[in-house]
Write a structure and sequence with these properties.
Blueprint: H1 2-10, E1 13-17, H2 25-37, E2 43-47, H3 73-84, E3 88-89, H4 91-101, H5 105-117, E4 121-123, E5 127-130, H6 140-151, H7 155-167, E6 170-172, H8 173-180, H9 184-196, E7 200-204, E8 210-213, H10 216-224, H11 228-246, H12 254-257
Parallel strand pairs: 1-2, 3-5
Antiparallel strand pairs: 4-5, 6-8, 7-8
Length: 258
């Protein structure tokens, strides 16, 4: 660290540290000391991290966090066009890719690459379409990354995310609380943690508070991480909870119950 500070005393210095979410405790401690030590020096420390990383320097006046927002629908379509040029994707294929990736550039690129490598898209009238009976399989790289993020969650938050995945991409909080059998305070604390980690976000207040998975791919990975026996038990508990919450209206929700 002293070498860096001596160098910075001679001329401005820029340090780039990637993938902060993989820091081990010793490296995190060293970085904390560095961030504190650079105050007053002409040093710019740039770090990149995935959602869920918790920086301990948030109260430092010289610290700033920049969040990369998801790509807009327009930019996503431009991305797809540039990737597949000189051809383009059919409107239905573009809409499907956009819905699956939710504007995440990494998901988007990996999805397009995997579809091409596996021959899941073909040219028809100078336009890429999904092959018959094909589906957009999740790239192994995306699945591994999401699985690793889920595994790094505290045990209680991970269990709550898996239960939410059983309910579907839209997660009514009342139903989640009944299935999870958690006190209201514990439930909302867990949801706040998952929202801060950008797994879920609040989508509706009325007629009932509802959260939604930020990405369809995240929902799929969280659901597939459940053992089949545990998954079956949660589905059964969900049906019971739906019947209880619906009361006399259970017959009107027969499709949902099925």
């Amino acid at each position: 660290m002293q070498v860096l500070l001596l160098h910075a005393a001679k001329q401005p210095l820029c340090l780039l540290i990637e993938d902060l979410h993989w820091l081990d405790p010793s490296s995190q401690e060293l970085l904390d000391l560095l961030v504190t030590a650079v105050a007053g020096y002409p040093v710019l420390v740039l770090g990149t991290a995935r959602p869920g990383f918790r920086e301990p320097w948030i109260d430092h006046t010289y610290y700033h966090r920049l969040t990369v927002s998801p790509l807009s629908d327009e930019i996503t379509e431009t991305f797809i066009h540039n990737y597949l040029q000189p051809y383009d994707a059919a409107a239905t294929l573009t809409a499907l890719i956009r819905a699956r990736t939710a504007g995440n550039p990494f998901f988007l690129e990996e999805m397009l690459r995997t579809m091409q490598e596996q021959g899941r898209i073909v040219l028809q009238d100078d336009m890429y379409i999904l092959t018959p009976d094909a589906h957009l399989a999740m790239p192994a790289s995306v699945q591994g990354m999401l699985a690793a993020r889920i595994d790094r969650l505290p045990a209680e938050a991970k269990a709550l995310l898996q239960i939410a995945a059983v309910l579907g991409r839209d997660v009514p909080v009342a139903l989640l609380g009944t299935v999870a059998e958690l006190p209201e305070a514990t439930l909302h604390k867990g949801l706040q943690h998952l929202q801060a980690a950008e797994f879920l976000y609040e989508t509706r207040l009325f007629p009932e508070l509802t959260y939604i998975f930020r990405h369809a791919l995240t929902h799929e990975v969280a659901y597939s991480s459940l053992l089949q026996e545990r998954r079956r038990a949660l589905h059964a508990r969900t049906v019971e909870a739906l019947e209880t919450l619906a009361g006399d209206r259970a017959e009107a929700q027969v499709d949902l119950l099925a």
